[in-house]
Specification:
globular; about 20% helix
Length: about 240
């Protein structure tokens, strides 16, 4: 319950943007047949205590940075990694952080590994206004923007075992390359990651940019879910002080 405790403190600190998804059925929402046990599957590239989360994180970040849409990413993961999308958005709620919401947090995507039968949840975020972020930062060179930004995935019920997680953020341009967030808690109810957000105001540091403009968090579920999958809902939460 540690992750939910952190999320509770986030709720007390600031307004939130969130999205949720539910696993709909064992066969998934993609109709095309999935290949089994591909040699390129993230399951074959898992490291100790990782469960393939870092390999999947890096794979999907590369796809996003190349301009692939979510639908294209889903098709690529199915064809090249044997990961079938098995979730659909359950609900979408947005609580603006100010008079204007400048961050989008879609419902997480949940995939079934057709080789192992295990699951991965991927949650993402994306800011929409560098101008508003520059106003928050209040600098023309490089500066921190408030305190740590926190991003988390939580579930409506505990999974039996988690095998790993990974989180990456990157800027709107090449000014801020991708980097890994620090995991501050993790367990069978979810995981939270944080990083110090930084702004380049556009003078002497490159183009106007924000180091956490884009990001995602991957959670590897070390269990095979069959008839119970309809009860598993992933929810994303983010704090932007």
């Amino acid at each position: 319950m540690f992750v939910k405790g952190i999320i509770g403190r986030i709720i007390a600190l600031t307004a939130l943007v969130s999205g949720s998804a539910v696993i709909t059925n064992a066969t998934g929402v993609q109709a095309a047949p999935a290949p089994l046990c591909l040699s390129s599957s993230v399951a074959t590239r898992a490291t100790a205590g990782d469960g393939g989360a870092k390999a999947l994180d890096h794979t999907v970040v590369a796809l996003r940075r190349s301009g692939k849409s979510q639908a294209e990413i889903d098709r690529t993961l199915l064809a090249e990694q044997g990961l079938r999308l098995v979730s659909t958005p359950a609900r979408r709620t947005v609580t603006p952080m100010s008079s204007e919401s400048i961050i989008s947090v879609p419902a997480p995507s949940i995939y079934k590994d057709t080789c192992t039968g295990k699951y991965y949840a991927i949650a993402t975020w994306k800011f929409s206004s560098l101008t508003s972020l520059k106003s928050d930062g209040g600098c023309t060179t490089t500066c921190n923007v408030g305190g740590y930004d926190v991003f988390a995935i939580s579930f409506s019920r505990n999974v039996s075992s988690v095998s790993g997680y990974s989180s990456t953020a990157w800027g709107a341009s090449s000014t801020f390359p991708s980097f890994s967030l620090t995991m501050v808690s993790g367990g069978t109810d979810g995981v939270a990651a944080r990083a110090q957000d930084r702004l380049c105001g556009g003078s002497g540091c490159g183009a106007l940019d924000y180091n956490m403009y884009n990001g995602q968090l991957v959670y590897s579920i070390n269990e095979v879910i069959s008839t119970r999958i309809a009860a598993l809902i992933g929810m994303t939460r983010t704090e932007h002080p």
